Amino acid sequence: MIQRIYKKEYSEVSHPFPTAVRKPGFMEAGYVEEEYFFEGTANVYEEAGEKTRRVIHENLPYCNRFLVRKPAQGERFSGNIVVEILNATAGFDIERMWVVGAKELMRGGDIYVGITSKPDVLDSLKKADHARYAPISWKITYERPENQYGGLDKAALPRKADCETGLFWDMLTELAEILRTDTEFIPEGKKRYLYLAGWSQSAAYMYTYLNYFAFPAAGLSVFDGYLAAGGVHSFVVPLNQNDYGKEQDVRKNMITYMPVPFISVQTESENAYFDGIKTRQEDSDREDLKYRVYEIAGATHDTKFSMIDYYAGDPDMEKIGIVPDFPSVDDYPNDYPYEYCFYAVYRMLFSWVREGKCPPHGERIEVDGDGRNKTDALGNAVSGMRTPFLDVPAAVYYPYCAVKRANGEIVKHGLFGHMEPFSKRKLEKLYGNLENYRKLVEGSAQKHMEAGFLLPEDVTDCVEEAIQRVVKLSTHNRGNESEILEL
Q: For residue 476, what pLDDT is reported?
């Protein structure tokens, strides 16, 4: 039970990690950022049968934190509260659902809450600001048997042997209950709609939460809607730390009961490399299964924008000793702008929850008999959720990159894709000139806007970015800056 919540103040020498305040557009959007610590006790659970649980440890003390990003003027609050399970895979709190959706959330007046989900990130928090984060603790005092963790990817394994990942489930449920009613950090006066969001490992957290905690009684849901993105479906999050490494059925990451709207968003990476194909489901509008899935063609799990550009020059990242980069011998990281898709998806989810407006069905990426994504004559994925950047491409977007191991072996890396820009000659052969290219891009943007997959507010930016990219990419052709498309 949460017993105390208190605000951590900003000062000249101390601020939250990560912070959005220094990012472009945040202050201009009239937003403020706050951080709260919360203390209490939580139970630890284990499975007691299919989608049932039992308590194995009661009332363990903890201290955790959450971030709040909201309109400075309370009257701008839309009523939407998006709670992100911050991703711990890289050893620090990755706020990916904020990164890919911040523009839409801020222009809508939505509130964002990011909750630390795993004690793996405690070292990075304390490197960022030891004094500020010293109280955070998930430590336990009981002994548990040694766990060899089986064959799990090291990135998913708990880093803290003296902590308990399983404390999180009660923290999340009780925080949601407080967000429904609290008036200290959530403005009064509007009906509140709570949404749970997660990326990658955090999407796997969501599936476990849905199976065991999200529906406490018939007709009740802790959250009003769910958005799981970049889900690594080969990884099933256990209820407690000692169960990491035990054999799990990936079908636990499938949705079989969902009385409130749920949207899943996948990139090419998840289909091709992380068992997305094994848990592929059809859309549903049944009252007990409200489900949509969108597969973004061209995009990969990590992109230049979301993993490199967003953190570039961030002094806090340098302080914790983690500066994300492109782990490949390929020349160009995948920079497919999938944020346009996420802006649309967020709005679809909000409309579905608040107005009962079912979102459109999206085409799935075509796959071959082995579950691999099919490609067209230009080398890009066939079908899927698309944008002008793929309808009228200026590059081939691959769902992998080539990584050189210490022994010199080159292997495919499925988290981060790469791209190969078309040459000036190829661009001219495909599109003739920049004027014609613009017409094709505008036609594509109009089509996707009418279908609901590109927001009207984003059409102009999308078109102009596509034009800028084709000019920039053409200058990359063998480094010849004179090789640009002529008007």
A: 55
> Do strands 395-398 and 284-286 pair parallel, antiparallel, or not at all (unpaired)?
unpaired
Tokens, residue 364: 């799935």
Asked if residue 328 lies in contact with residue 416, where contact means CB atoms within 8 angstroms, the answer is yes
pLDDT tens, position by position, 250-274: 888 999 999 999 999 999 998 777 7
Backbone φ and ψ for 67, nearest 5 degrees, come out as: -100, 145
ω into 18 cis (within 30 of 0): yes
Write down all domains in the chain, each with its CATH number in brackets: 2-363 (3.40.50)
Are the CB atoms for 4 and 39 separated by under 8 Å? Answer: yes
Is 418:401 a contact under the CB 8 Å cutoff?
yes
Q: Which of the four pLDDT bands, split at 50, 70 and 90, describes residue 477?
A: low
SS3 state at 460: helix
**What is the average pLDDT value for the chain, to the nearest integer?**
93
Q: What is the CA radius of gyration of the chain?
A: 22
- The residue among 69, 104, 103 whose CA lies nearest residue 83 is 69
Q: CA-CA distance, 191 to 177, in Å (whole number)? A: 14
